[in-house]
UniProtKB/TrEMBL annotation:
<dbReference type="Pfam" id="PF02481">
    <property type="entry name" value="DNA_processg_A"/>
</dbReference>
<dbReference type="InterPro" id="IPR041614">
    <property type="entry name" value="DprA_WH"/>
</dbReference>
<comment type="similarity">
    <text>Belongs to the DprA/Smf family.</text>
</comment>
<feature type="domain" description="Smf/DprA SLOG">
    <location>
        <begin position="70"/>
        <end position="280"/>
    </location>
</feature>
<dbReference type="InterPro" id="IPR057666">
    <property type="entry name" value="DrpA_SLOG"/>
</dbReference>
<dbReference type="GO" id="GO:0009294">
    <property type="term" value="P:DNA-mediated transformation"/>
</dbReference>
<dbReference type="InterPro" id="IPR036388">
    <property type="entry name" value="WH-like_DNA-bd_sf"/>
</dbReference>
<dbReference type="InterPro" id="IPR003488">
    <property type="entry name" value="DprA"/>
</dbReference>
<protein>
    <submittedName>
        <fullName>DNA protecting protein DprA</fullName>
    </submittedName>
</protein>
<dbReference type="Pfam" id="PF17782">
    <property type="entry name" value="WHD_DprA"/>
</dbReference>
<feature type="domain" description="DprA winged helix">
    <location>
        <begin position="293"/>
        <end position="342"/>
    </location>
</feature>
Amino acid sequence: MDLRYLNAINLLAPARPDLLTKLAERFGEDWEKAWHSSELKSYLGPKAGSPKDINPDKEYKKLERADIWITTINDSLYPPLLKQIFDPPWLLYYQGKLEALTKPCLAVVGSRAATEYGKRATLAITKDLARAGFTIISGLARGIDGHAHRATIEARGVTVAVLGGELATNSIVQENQTTAKQILKTGGGIISEYPLGIEAQQFTFPQRNRIVSGLSKGVIVVEATLKSGALITARLAAEQGRDVFAVPGPIFSNTSTGTNMLIQNGAKAVQTATDILTEYQTTYTLAKPVVQGNNPTEDKILATIGTDTRSLDEIIRACQLPAPAVIAALMNLELDDKVTNLGNNRFILKT
């Protein structure tokens, strides 16, 4: 199989599994033959680009320079669970490793405008799922997605991101650029069904979401408004026969209206990772690692924060230490990756 021509055809009509299936049946996966065939244009349709505008060799070299690989639906590397959905992508572009997708996968998704509550719930639940051996799937978007990927990395787990556009920096929001690099360094992967040159657009994200749910045994929605894309992922998961979980939230919080509605409609309510692990009869001790400071001041601060979120003022009052000493100790604890500043000087243990 000559992937140069498969990539070129996908550039002319991106993310069209129906088209590629028809061409594979017609030309027996001889993509070079399909590319040069006079029939190609009739398969592509009037809205597709012209083969004259694309150099298959040149476009494929762009993939090689970017360390982007291709797997097709008939390859052994192709995720087996994804094959089971109604409209699986015919090919996937990927960076990093796909081996993580051979393990049981769970998707963690939610609002781009994550609240402090959503961040904390994502960190706590995702870390325990990663420690239990699940590969965590998400979309590397702003908000809950990014926190899910980072929580997995912090727990020394493996995570895979699914993009809604080409495998390039312009498909990843600025705040998650470093996270993308960490995903690859820690044995995970970044995948897309879109070739280089196809940027993410509004309509590509629902198409991406079917892959997020399709890769996963279940989908956990942490926060979502009633119009959130995360609810699209939840609906697709249900249609694909996957489990849907949702984290309940305050009734006055707009970002919990979607998750509360999912629970009303039959999704399983999740308060801890144990609620999910019991569904899959996974045995795992959810004991948190003990976090210790480097001196008595740091130990006192860590004990004060405990399992809760504390503001700087609360820590200073509880510790009965001078403000400069507490601020300096918190800075050192952040540098040592033991404490996270959630914003507005509110701190939580990083476990």
